[in-house]
Write a structure and sequence with these properties.
It is built from twelve helices and ten strands. The strands form two sheets. The protein has a six-stranded mixed sheet. α2 crosses α7, α7 packs across α8 and α8 packs across α9. It has two domains: 180 residues, 3-Layer(aba) Sandwich (Rossmann fold); 102 residues, Rossmann fold (3-Layer(aba) Sandwich). By secondary structure, it is an alpha/beta fold.
């Protein structure tokens, strides 16, 4: 399960700003890891599904929103590796035809359970989880796939990077990718997470629950680039994503990677990252959600 033939590419990014600041920037193209189980979701799901197989579980149950990359990836992974999948979806007004993400998950065999936003808030409640576990005899993976098994998979990204670096960056939604990266860093390195949603204390708490205390100082979350909150955007963000594609030929999504790269360039411009440093930015995928985003907002962001 989860075999892959080669490391994902580490692509140098060339830009006048980077030359001016004497900063080397590489993009770790995790979006290219698999056509269906994309980016950090491959890494997060790997050891969760291996553990489910070891426990002889046949059903995977997990949680997500209407455009969830995690839901899309879990549905694809369950189909490929022989599990049944159940997705508890936030929004009782939705159905399997509400957007391309849910359509694809449904086509891949995932049973979608639509619940109210009030009920969805119980997704981490031990009682609620036990109830679902008993009802479906399922292996439960939390929202976003972020748990200690996910950290094992994310940490493996570092073993594929043979270029010395000072900083590694990623978007932050549920904290698993940032915690996994930080858990494998050396003392002189730091992981910077760019928040994709509002809520400073909330994200720090999520990461803190996943990460061993001795690694807490090897990570930090930047909160200035959520563009109004989760799935929110502005014309400035869309313009940046389009310009980045025109210049580098690499698509970014407006929920996660677009915000990270916008924030990273702004931090470099403002001198928040020291001159002469080497940075690896992790492209965590999420491109599957662009189709629904374009459909909703009448845009034409690229996906390949």
């Amino acid at each position: 399960m989860f075999e892959k033939s080669a490391p994902t590419p580490l692509v140098p990014i060339h830009d006048e700003l980077l030359e001016e600041k004497n900063i080397k920037l590489f993009l770790k193209r995790e979006d290219l890891i698999d056509p269906d189980i994309s980016g950090n979701k491959w890494r997060k799901l790997k050891y969760n599904l291996i553990k489910a197989k070891e426990q002889d579980k046949e059903i995977i149950l997990t949680f997500g929103g209407a455009y969830s990359n995690h839901i899309a990836a879990t549905a694809a992974a369950a189909k490929r590796f022989g599990f049944q999948a159940i997705g508890v979806i936030r929004g009782e007004e939705l159905n399997e035809n509400s957007n391309p993400t849910l359509q694809k998950a449904h086509e891949n065999g995932m049973q979608l359970l639509f619940v109210s936003r009030a009920d969805y808030m119980f997704r981490t409640s031990p009682h609620w989880l036990t109830m679902h576990q008993q009802e479906y005899s399922a292996f439960i993976i939390p929202e976003g796939g972020s748990n200690h098994l996910a950290l094992q998979g994310v940490k493996e990204i570092l073993s594929e990077i043979d270029t010395p670096f000072d900083y590694i960056t990623c978007p932050v939604g549920t904290g698993g990718t940032l915690a996994g990266l930080a858990s494998g860093l050396q003392a002189h390195q730091k992981a910077l997470g760019f928040a994709s949603l509002a809520g400073e204390d909330y994200l720090e708490k999520l990461v803190g629950q996943l990460l061993a205390p001795e690694f807490h100082e090897r990570q930090a979350i930047v909160h200035d680039y959520d563009f109004g909150g989760y799935a929110k955007h502005t014309p400035k963000l869309i313009e940046f994503i389009q310009n980045f594609y025109d210049q580098h030929g690499i698509p970014l999504d407006p929920i996660y990677t677009g915000k990270m790269m916008y924030g990273l360039f702004d931090q470099i411009k403002k001198g928040k990252i020291e001159e002469g440093k080497t940075i690896v930015a992790v492209h965590t995928g999420g491109l599957q959600g662009i189709a629904g985003f374009n459909e909703q907002y009448g845009l034409n962001l690229k996906t390949i």
